[in-house]
Structures are given as C-alpha cells and as structure tokens.
Specification:
Blueprint lengths: L1 H5 L3 H17 L10 H11 L6 E7 L8 H15 L2 E6 L5 H14 L8 E6 L3 H10 L1 H4 L26 E6 L3 H13 L3 E5 L8 H6 L5 E3 H12 L4 H34 L1
Parallel strand pairs: 1-2, 1-4, 2-3, 4-5, 5-6
C-alpha cells in the first residue's frame, strides 16, 4: 500500500481531478461564503446609484484569462440592468472587442436591456494612455462611432454624455496593469471614481489603492464574483468556479499529505 501511494499512476490523479471538477459543475453545491468589505462597497455604490446614471465597464483582459473576470462582468451587468443603471463598455485589449460585445448582448437579452438606451459598447482604440486621457476631455473625440459603426451623437444614451463628468464609476475588469493606468490618468487627473475586479494573481497589488481611497471597491477573482452573486442572490459562474477550485485544492492537499505520510512511514521502516 505504501509503495502504491508513493508511486501513484499520474493517470489516476488526472481521473480524480476530473471527477472533482465535473461533480461540482453538474451538481449545484454552494460552499459558505462571507462577503468581504471591498466587494460590499462596490455593490453598495452601484446599488445607491439612481436609475439613469451611467457607469463605464472596461473589459481589460484577454481570452486566456477570461475565466475569472467574465463572471464578475455578468454579475455587475445584471445588477446595473435591474437597477436601470446605464453601461458603457470599452476595452484596452485588441483581442477583446468581439468577446466583450457578445457578453454584453447576452446579458442584455436576458434582462430586456435595449442597445443604445440601456447600454452601448464602444470597442477598442490603440494607445491605452491616449484613450484614457482623451475620453476625459471628450469621449467622441476618441470613439467617433460605437463598435457597430453607429455615430456616437446618434445614440440616444450618449446625447448627454460628453466625458468622465457624466460617468458615475469606471469598473476595470483586469488581468494586468490596466487598473493602475485608470487610477493614474482617469482618477487622479479627472476625478473619475474607479473600482476593479481582477484575477487572483494580481489582487495583492490592488489593496494599497483601497487603503488610499483610490478604489471604491474591489472584486478578487472567483471569490469576488461569488461574493457579488451572493449579494444579488443569484449564483452563477463565479460560484461554480469557486466551488470547483476549492474541491480541487482539497483533493491536491489530501494527495500531498498522503504521499508525505507514506514516504515517512516507508523511510522509518527501512531504518
């Protein structure tokens, strides 16, 4: 038995991981979740916005990292559409427009939101810093048309929106350093309120901005999406992702412990 544990076939490990991933995905299992203060602050900020206010949602991640930011985007979009808060979508990543536009259309259709009245998607323009600074002066000077090619001045939702002065919040869904750019060039220079939803690997570098008040709220990876879904009382992809990751981690920790126990027992017997 000890020899088998120490020399476990890796195919068996792959099978165990597959089982642990499949079961929580197919069977809705809700692990207990406590909502953190940063996620609560973001939710409260949007919840307190009156109908007709506008937020900007920046899809600043790529296809390779969408597993964590996408559930956050879905949760926030549902919240905004239910509240009657308008959403302007934008991205600083060249490979994201199609995915971001499709996501907004999907969630809008589920919540009877109308394009041009409840939300729009501007798309992508090269030069991240120039885009951020340019929209602070005049959004139409950077995005003359939306992603579909409709002139900005022809979109009903944009008739009274010129720059950041009419934007209540910028939520950056990020997998890189874009949040820092939004803070430096949009918050510091133009006073735009910033919040973030980031992948787990960069969450640590966001906390200083929370302490300084430069971020009004923060969602950390799958956990942040799960917390937001809990506040909405609408479990979604974030809850499934967090549960799956949790069970896989438990399995791997258990295998590591068993392997170490077997190794030390085997070595003691040899001595």
């Amino acid at each position: 038995m000890l020899e088998k544990l120490m020399n476990m076939d890796r195919r068996l490990i792959f099978i165990l991981v597959a089982v642990v991933v499949i079961i929580p995905t197919l069977i809705p299992i809700r692990l207990p979740t406590r909502v953190s203060e940063p996620a609560q602050k973001l939710y409260d900020y949007i919840e307190e916005l009156p109908p007709g206010e506008t937020i900007m949602l920046a899809f600043d991640y790529g296809p390779s990292s969408l597993a964590e930011p996408e559930p956050m985007a879905k949760a926030v979009l549902r919240h905004c559409f239910n509240k009657g808060v308008n959403v302007i979508g934008v991205t600083l990543y060249a490979n994201m427009p199609t995915l971001a536009h499709g996501l907004m259309q999907k969630i809008a259709a589920e919540n009877d939101a109308i394009y041009g009245e409840d939300y729009i998607f501007l798309g992508y323009r090269p030069g991240a810093l120039q885009v951020i600074l340019g929209m602070g002066n005049n959004i139409a000077s950077v995005f003359e048309t939306d992603y579909s090619g409709t002139a900005i001045h022809e979109i009903p939702m944009m008739k009274n929106i010129k720059n950041y002065d009419q934007i209540a919040l910028l939520l950056d869904l990020a997998a890189g350093s874009s949040t820092e750019a939004w803070i430096v060039y949009a918050n510091t220079r133009y006073g735009l309120k910033i919040a973030a939803g980031v992948t787990g690997v960069i969450i640590a570098q966001m906390y200083p901005f929370l302490q300084t008040g430069q971020l009004v709220g923060l969602m950390p990876g799958y956990l942040g999406a799960t917390e937001y879904e809990k506040l909405l009382n609408a479990p979604g992809d974030g809850t499934v992702g967090l549960n799956t990751a949790s069970f896989v981690h438990v399995l791997l920790i258990g295998l590591v412990l068993l392997g170490n126990i077997a190794f030390f027992i085997h070595r003691r017997r040899e001595e």
